[in-house]
Amino acid sequence: MAGRRIVVFPSSVELGPVLARLVTSRAEKAIASHGRFTLGLSGGSLVSMLGKELPALPELDCSKWVVGFCDERLVSFDDPESTYGLYKSKLFSKVNIPDSGILTIDSSLPVSECAEDYTRKLKEAFPDDHFPVFDLLLLGMGPDGHTCSLFPDHPLLEETTKIVAPISDSPKPPPQRVTMTLPVVNAARCVAFVSTGGSKAPILKEVLEGREGPEFPAARVVPTNGELFWLVDDPAAASLTTQVERLSSGAKL
Ligand SMILES: O=C1O[C@H](COP(=O)(O)O)[C@@H](O)[C@H](O)[C@H]1O
């Protein structure tokens, strides 16, 4: 697929610093071009990696960052399942993103209203865009091929008008979540998936090399005008036969 870069690292130890430098290079570019950097974060295994790598960068300045969540679980912020709660303790407490630049859900609302409230926050943050155009979205992929909270065979995959959608029947707990929709994901200037570990090898092969039947949600992430990276480690890439780039920790993307 044109424009897609599949980059394989020996392990997540080498991948982490390159991911952190991808974030800061896209931040510098965005701030130089339009005065701020808009970043969408996913939960799961990404939280620990970013919490380790970003604060370790020398002279990291996040004062012009605006951060949203690609998806969020509808639980209180002190629940261990809360993506915001985890980022607060592992990342936001260690870097200088202004509180006003962190776009959170209101977890006290019922799920549909929560999605509407988060939609309003994104529209306010992106007043000029029909669909918010994030400078960078960081995505994970579950072993079932889901990304954000967009799950295989779910009707939300066909959403074409909403910015944020509620989901009450997530097959992965917790069941109630809100998620960016595919039109928002595919409007981004840059999307980077991070997928590590041998448990991701079978699904990674199907997502990147195709399969019979409907595409997995992660395979439907094809930014219209943006860059697409798949940053994976050797165990996750073990079954791939497609062409990949092999890099180590000193690389810059
Ligand atoms: O439930 C979720 O899972 C995906 C994948 O997580 P990972 O731990 O397998 O990387 C994550 O991207 C998403 O934000 C989260 O809500």
TrEMBL record:
Its EC number is 3.1.1.31. Residues 14-230 form the Glucosamine/galactosamine-6-phosphate isomerase domain. Signal peptide: none annotated. The keyword Hydrolase applies. Keywords: Hydrolase. SUPFAM superfamilies: NagB/RpiA/CoA transferase-like (SSF100950). Belongs to the glucosamine/galactosamine-6-phosphate isomerase family. 6-phosphogluconolactonase subfamily. This is 6-phosphogluconolactonase. It comes from Scophthalmus maximus. The gene is PGLS.
